[in-house]
Amino acid sequence: MLIEWIELDNFECYYTSPGKPPQRLSFDIEPQKRSLTFFVARNNSGKTTIIRALKFLFYNEVDEMQIVNNKALSEVGVGGKITIAVRARVRFDHPSGPEWVTLVRKYEAKRLEDGDEGLRVREIDRQMTLTKRESPSRNRDYYGADATSMVKEQLPKELFPFYFLDGENLKNKLGLGGDAFDKQMLNAIHDSLYSSVFERAADICSKSIQKVQRELAGLAKQSKAMEQVQEDRDKKAVELAGFQSQMKELKKEFDRYQADYQHLDEKYLGLAQSESASAAAMLKEARREEDSLKEDIKRVGLKIKELLSDALPYAFMERASGVALEVIDSLHERNIFPVNITEDLISELIKQKECVCGSRLEEGTKELARLQAYRERALRQNMDEDLKGIRSILLEDSRSSQTIISKLSASKDFISEELSFYRDKMTALAECQDRIRRAERKIAKGHDTAIRDCITQRRIAFERKEEASDKISRFEQGILRVSSEKDKLDAELKRKVPKGSPAQKILDNLAVLQRVLEIIERSKKEIQYEIRSRLETHTKEIYEKISTDNSYAVIQKNLLPDIRNMGQKTNQGGGQKKVLTMAYMVGLANVRKEICAELRKHIHLRVTGEQCFFMDSIYSDMDIEYQKSVTEILPSFVTQLLVLVAPQNCSEAVQGKLKGHVTDMYRAIHYTSKVKGDDPQSVDLWGKTVQLVERIEDDLAYSQLEKVEVC
Amino acid sequence: MFNQLKLPHTAEDLFFLVKRGGNTDESAFLSTYAQLFVLGATYGFEKKKFDANVTSTDQIEPIKTAFFGHSIVLLQTICLAEDKTHEVLAQPDRMVEILQGYASGGFREIKRISEEVPRGWAQIERWMQELQVEG
Lengths: 711, 135
Fold this sequence. Notes:
Shape of chain A: rod-shaped
Radius of gyration of chain A: 71 Å
Low-confidence stretches of chain B: none
Largest interface: A-B, 40 and 39 residues
Distance between the termini of chain B: 30 Å
Shape of chain B: globular
Number of strands of chain B: 2
Structural class of chain A: alpha/beta
Largest sheet of chain B: 2 strands, antiparallel
Strand order of the largest sheet of chain B: 1-2
Low-confidence stretches of chain A: 131-159, 170-197, 356-365, 381-387, 558-572
Strand content of chain A: 5-15%
Distance between the termini of chain A: 26 Å
Number of helices of chain A: 19
Radius of gyration of chain B: 14 Å
Helix content of chain B: 40-55%
Strand content of chain B: under 5%
Oligomer: heterodimer
Structural class of chain B: mainly alpha
Order of helices and strands of chain B: EHEHHH
Mean pLDDT of chain B: 86
Helix content of chain A: 55-70%
């Protein structure tokens, strides 16, 4: 960073006359050129005020009781207000081109009562405007939408570091018995040596990351839906993964149930079919047997019934036949042969008699013989014709009777046999039917059990299968739904963060920054070592160019830890420590420049390598040789240098070395009614007298800047 | 011999013994109502069960003589044995009276023994016992 100009408006001793522009200190900075501005002023006339103004502007370091220009404040009445402002325009030389930033910090002071106690000061404004010659839009890429707010938020120390050396304080501190360096300076060097540059780099990364994250958050805020979408999408992804996992398990379960189901199907149905077939065969056989038996029984039954119907009447004819025969016998004895006692009747009677009682067959035979006797007797009574007929009839009847008797006898036996057979068959039928019933029960039981088991198992398997199938179906639907929603969300995300969009670029930057930060964190010690090493190298190089006493080898051992005590131990005065300090500062700037260049390879680093150096009162209490060498050597290491010098230190030797290098020269004219001290009121610079004090009537002194044309 | 014989009304309870008119009773062993009549008459005469003033059933038509076939001799025998004279065979009305009287008495007796056992083959066997006893 180089400073193009600085304006001071009623800041401390610098008074801005009403209606006049603020005090401006311009620097002639041009690309590829070095700038050396020589500023001369009496003590307490505004040299160090320049440095404090920059601290105020960049770092907001402010002493509210000193910041206000008393003359300006006195010009407003009680309750009146004045504005205190410092402005500066700085330039950054980036590889992509120069960039300018104009910074303004304003405070407002209100005069409450006369005197300092009544002063109230408050910051009223702080502005930074950023311009870039080539492409302002590229700045927006980096800073985001609100460059001004980003610049405001960015630490000025990071964006606008400058190096200053307050040689007066250094001298005073030295003069106080070796309390060495200005504490702030010492701390700055210490911090820089050990971590400052590195920390700054890391800090820049962190801040850049935070910035990018803020921008992301801004984007997310702008599109709340996007966050929701992202969240939903993640949830869906988790849900989907869960679904898929469960689906896998369910499919396994389903396959298992399916296999079980099929196995049961085959096992139980086969078993049932086998049992059923076996039982059916048994049943069929039994029924065939039953049918056969029933047929036999029916046949025998019919036969029995037929025989019974024939035999029963005869069985009950014993008494009737006996009586009838006696009647007939009586008639015959009386030789009465009635016509209606037919042959049929007689033969039937005999048949009946023999039928119902086989024992009477013999009697029948006797009867036959008796009838033959009747025949003979009839012959004798010339009844041949009748007898012939009777005889033949009787003979026939006798034969018929014998046949019938034998038939009846046989029938009776047959009936008995048939009955026995019938009973056997009935028993067999009962057994058969019992077997059938058993078979049927067995069939029913076995078949039912098998079928029932089969059905139960099948139902269970089927229910499980169906349940698994339902679940699978639901999960499939769920997966489809979630997958579809996830796809939609992915598409929405892509739409919201398209490739090459600012948001995507920010995301990319974030990734890079995080990577760089990671590298930095990982190699922290290495970087620290590197910084220290480089700092030592640079410091040594600069110091050895300025100093010819080879003391660096001595102080190197105690480079920082003992630098505080160096003056006490060695009592090496004459500006040696100032030189060393300057060497450190320049070395530090160089190291920083190198680090910036390296970091810029990875990140869009806003800090720039070129730095301005403000050296205040560096020549005081410095040996002339050091004055000469510092003046000669320092500008060659520094791009912009502001040398603030008191008139008593503007020695010819210094002027001699400065000649040809100074690009601008300024003086601070101190307007006062009283000239204090022995400090000269003017100074001769390169043969020209430059006045530094102007007398005024007013008691309130003030200063104003003025460019001096000498070189 | 006689015109027609009518079944007494006592025979009504024994129609189940006749396999006629769609009767499928297992205990039926007679083929015709004529056989039923003969069975009743012979059983009644054997058991000396005679009913005077027999009323006939209206459910069955009078049985023509031809239906009795060879059993007519049995009926003649009963009549001859009842009146102990061959003249009865020339008196159709008397024969009808005798036969229907014994048939009615026989049916009552048969009904009694039929009720001793349930229908079906038990009754057939019961008749078989009768046959054996008598035989």
